[in-house]
Every structure is written in C-alpha cells, then in structure tokens.
Amino acid sequence: MSEIELDLISHLSEYKRIFSFLTAEDIMKKELITLTPENYLSEARVIMRDKRISGIPIVDKEGKLVGLVSTERIIRALEEGIISNKIKEYMTPREKIVYFSPKDTFEKIVETFERYRYGRYPVIDEHNKLLGLITKHDILRAILKQFHSIYIHDRRREEYLNREVSILASDKFIEDKASFRYDINTQSISEAGEGTALLKKVLEKRGYHRDFIRRVSIGTYEAEVNVVIHAGGKGLILAFFEEDGVVVFVRDWGPGIEDIDLAMKEGFSTAPDHIRELGFGAGMGLPNMRRAADRLVILSQSGKGTRVEMVFNLKEGRD
Amino acid sequence: MKVREIIEILDCEVLTGNVNLEEEVKYGYTSDLLSEVIGKAHPDSVWITIQSHLNIVAVAVLVGIKAIVVCEGKTVDPKVVEKAIQEKVAIITTRENSFRTSGKLYEAGLR
Fold first, then answer.
1. Does A217 touch chain B (CB under 8 A)?
2. pTM for the model
3. Closest CA to A290 of A245, A255, A260
C-alpha cells in the first residue's frame, strides 16, 4: 500500500464507532477469482496483470481456503525463475494467512489493516470455506455506500458555491448546456413543484422507466420545495440527460443551511408553523433526497445560498 | 381494487368526475406529512389525508398515487380539483376521519 492509502486507513480508525454496525460480510467482495494449488504461478501472474488484482486466494475442490498468492510472491518467482512451477509449494499457506470471520466487526477489520498492512484479507466461515475478500477498496466502498453523499462543509464552500462546473461531474453545469432549465420564482408554497412537474413530463417523453422518473422527481421536488420554503423562492433547476442517467442541479441564493449534518437528520426542520400545517417541514426532505439520488452533494454557506447536485444512475434491471 | 370500488366502500363524494375510476389500486397510505408520503407510499396507492391544498396533487403525481381521500369533511378548493383532473388524480372527500377511512379500506383488502 502507498503512503496515502495507509494514511487513509489510519483515518478510518477515527470512525470506528460510526460504522460499528458494519461486519466483514457487509464489506467483503463476493465475486472472487480463485485458483487451486494445481494451477501454475504463471497463470496467477496473467490473471493479476489482466484483472489488475494484487492477490489470489487458493482453494481446494470444496472451496476451502488453502493458501494465498500475492503479487510480491509472483515478482519473487520471476526473479527466482520458478514462474512455471505449480502454486502449491509457493503459496502463503493457510496457517499463515490473516483472515476474517463473517461477523467480525468494522473495528476489528480496521485494526487488522493497521497492524498487518497486507493488501487483502480473506473472509472464511467456520468450515474454512472462502466467502469473500476484503481490500481497502472494499472498506471505502462500504463506507461510501453508507454515506451516499458528500457534504462539503468548511471554508472552501464559498469558492465551490459559485463555480460553474459540477463537483460530481466536472464537465457539467455550464448553464447553456443543460438539457432542461427551470427558473424557480415564487414565494407561494402552492406553486412549489411546478419545475419538477415539467421535468417529469420531459423525462416521460424521453421514455425513461417510471421507477427511475420517480426517483429523479422525488429528489428534485424536495430540493425545489426547499427553495420555496427556505430561500425566498428564487432559484434555478438544471438537468442534464446522460446516457447512464440524469444529473440535477438546484441552486438558490437564500440564507443557506446553518448546519448540514443536522439538516440531514430525519425529523429536523426549520420550516415555520404555517408551512408545517400544510404537511411540509416534516424534516424528511433531505433524507428523501439522499434516498432517491445515487449521489448527492449539498453545498451551503450561511448567507450565500445552497447548491444541490444529485446524480441518478440508470440501473440495469431496476430502471 | 378499482377506485370505483373504494368510492362504494366509503361514505364519500367524488370531486373529479370520471377520473381514474377504473384504475387499479393495490395499496393505501395514511399521512398528512407530504415528504413521508413521497418517501414511503407505493405507486398505485390510495392516499388518505386531511391535507387539501394544491400540493397534494403534485405529491400524488410524483408518487403515482391514483386517488386521494380527503378526510374530516375538509373543503377542497376548485383550483385543486381542476389541477387534479388535469393531472389525472381522483379526489374523494369524506366526513369520516383518517383512522376510520383507513380501517374500512384495510378491511376491504387494501394493504
């Protein structure tokens, strides 16, 4: 692992408690490439090169873990001129492998990564059967899946707020390139949602699947309603239609969000009473946006407005 | 269950004429908080609420709700009805409360 990656892992230990509910079986990747002791080191080398992986678990006929071959071993095998030999005599044997059980905690996993600094750890059940593999990438992926979103919440915000390009998709958000544009300009709550309704119709015309349209509409509606309730009703919706999905951008020049972390909590709302009586302000808007979008960025600064970017990916078999 | 059957079960008035009467409804959802409905109601639902303002139509369209039952005898503004007809959402009003209305529809098989 590089210096930066090690640094990343040591930072992770600061979040041990937050992710304590994650276990090895949540984190591990299950689609594995394995070899048997009877395969050759040269075969392992080709797989590592072509699939860009740094280690291959070695299993017997019943799928039980018997060893591991790493890139380091392959490099040495090349140096030693034994690359045409069978794996069985050169693999790291089972008893020397640091592994996880399916129910091992996030805390244990991070500590193990810190202590041993190997690239990968197999996950095996009580019968030694190989279930999965955990690398640092798998840990990061599992964490990102929990977040679903990024909140940039420091002094760099102002700079980003006024940038014309997207944070999630750097070539977008030049206004005249948008596939859809709607200017929000109403202080009347009963008119909130007009922009979303129009966007929905456009998406329907383009033939997107109804579940996909629903997700885009939910995220956009919540963002639009927020502009009307919290930002004086002046804002902008841009949407970009891509082959693999839709990106929506909602910008306002209102008072901004004081504390984004708090705002993301279900049930928290700063909506006034007359708005709440209409059934708004239940504190579900941002959580709904997070659920609907595949990726969400909210940038906000007190007094400078708010900018929401949502990426909705078309998923095979789902949308 | 068709929207028409829901109307027969409830002691109610239809404000939107023939809109969606023959549409099939499988689920019900009862809430007055719009974002809860947006986040949690199934498409092809009937929505039971005491809200009667214009935004209920927008919420119904977003979710795919076929019919809204406005309870407690709340009056629904003609503008809302007009919008509902335009967007193809049935609006039904009843004097009963949300609990009793939900109960009747549950008993009739909606989930």
1. yes
2. 0.62
3. A260
Span A97-124, average pLDDT: 91
Q: How many Cβ pairs within 8 Å bridge chains A and B?
A: 62
Which domains are delineated in chain B?
A: 3-107 (3.40.1390.20)
Neighbours of B11 (CB within 10 A): 12
Complex confidence, ipTM: 0.86
Which of B89, B26, B85, B19 has the alpha carbon at shortest distance from B61?
B89
Q: Cα–Cα distance between B84 and B91 in angstroms, integer?
A: 7
- In angstroms, the separation between the Cα of residue B111 and the nearest Cα of chain A is 20
In chain A, where are the structural domains located?
3-145, 149-313
- pLDDT of res. B93: 97
**Tens digits of per-residue pLDDT, B57-103?**
999 999 999 999 999 999 999 999 999 999 999 999 999 999 999 99
The amino acid at B96: E
The beta-carbon neighbor of B51 closest among A200, A222, A279 is A279
Provide the mean pLDDT of chain A: 84
Q: Do A284 and B39 touch (CB under 8 A)?
A: yes
Starting at the edge strand found earlier in the chain, the sheet holding A55-59 runs A55-59, A65-70, A92-93
Instruction: Tell me if the domain spanning A149-313 has CATH number 3.30.565.10.
Output: yes
**Amino acid found at B11:** D
pLDDT confidence band for A158 (50 / 70 / 90):
low
Decide if A190 touches B, using CB distance below 8 A.
yes
Which CATH number applies to A3-145? 3.10.580.10
Q: Would you say the C-alpha torsion A128, A131, A137, A140 has a positive or negative sign? A: negative
pLDDT exceeds 50 at position A153: no
